[in-house]
Design brief:
- It is a single chain.
- The chain is an alpha/beta fold and 249 residues long.
- The chain has one domain (5-189, 220-240): NAD(P)-binding Rossmann-like Domain (Rossmann fold).
- Helix content is 48%, strand content 14%.
- The protein is built from nine helices and seven strands.
- The protein has helices at 14-25, 40-52, 67-81, 105-133, 144-148, 154-174, 192-195, 199-207, 217-228; strands spanning 5-8, 29-34, 58-61, 87-90, 136-141, 179-186, 239-242.
- The protein is globular.
Length: 249
């Protein structure tokens, strides 16, 4: 296939869906990676919904915490698209919040594995083909809470901060090979999950955001599409904050 191939981990979630849409609108053949606890029917239903909305997006199962499962996911992508991954968006992640004094090892390990180790598992499988082609894009989804910290999220903040360290180091290794590596750090984004929060709590959160509103998933998708564009090849090792001014560094 002549189109470049984009893989979005956690692609069937709220942010993932908008990232998939934005990349499809930019002309990529898009594959949404999913885990969903192994609920393949849920992923197929999501895929059908996207098709009804005008988006022909492939789906590929993969547990990003497991190296063998990630390898199987990449193999599926090749079978579905007939090519290697040109764009990887490391979007999959979880939270297991709690004050550090009460935090269990399991809460720490699960979050570090899903949010940080996952980048190693997925990126190592696609980086060499990108280098061989002389073109590639890696976008890692971090968080405003990696930049400023957040009460009850020592595990999540640590993992998400590690993401940008990974970005900066890998960016230097592959910069001369035509491959860029960047981070996007969203603030509060109005996903379906956030929309379920009580309105008074939403209002309280918004009062602390200078632009006075939540971000939209589409704004994160558009940011990713910008970074993977051919004309964005001079941007690498960067961390783009998309947080409405909540944290300025």
């Amino acid at each position: 296939m002549s189109q470049k191939v984009a893989l979005v981990t956690g692609g069937t979630g709220g942010l993932g869906t908008s990232i998939c849409h934005a990349l499809a609108d930019s002309g990529f053949t898009v594959v949404a990676g999913y885990n969903s606890g192994g609920n393949h029917e849920k992923a197929k239903a999501w895929q059908a919904e996207q098709k009804q909305a005008g988006y022909d997006i492939h789906v590929a199962y993969g547990d990003v915490t497991d190296a063998d499962s990630c390898a199987s996911c990449i193999k599926t992508v090749a079978e579905l698209t007939g090519g290697t991954v040109d764009v990887l968006v490391n979007n999959a992640g979880i939270t297991r919040d709690g004050q550090f004094k009460k935090m269990s090892w399991e809460q720490w390990d699960e979050v570090l594995s899903a949010n940080l180790d996952s980048m190693f598992h997925m990126t190592r499988l696609v980086i060499n083909p990108m280098i061989e082609k002389g073109w590639g894009r890696v976008v890692n989804i971090s968080s405003v809470n990696a930049q400023k910290g957040q009460f009850g999220q020592c595990n999540y903040s640590a993992a998400k901060a590690g993401i940008h360290g990974f970005t900066k180091a890998l960016a230097q290794e592959v910069a001369r090979k035509g491959v860029t590596v960047n981070t996007v750090s969203p603030g509060y984004i109005k996903t379906a999950m956030v929309a379920k929060i009580a309105q008074e709590v939403q209002d309280q959160i918004c009062s602390g955001i200078p632009v006075g509103r939540f971000g939209t998933p589409e704004e994160i998708g558009r940011t990713c599409a910008f970074l993977v564009d051919d004309q964005s090849g001079y941007i690498t090792g960067a961390d783009l904050s998309v947080n409405g001014g909540l944290h300025m560094s």
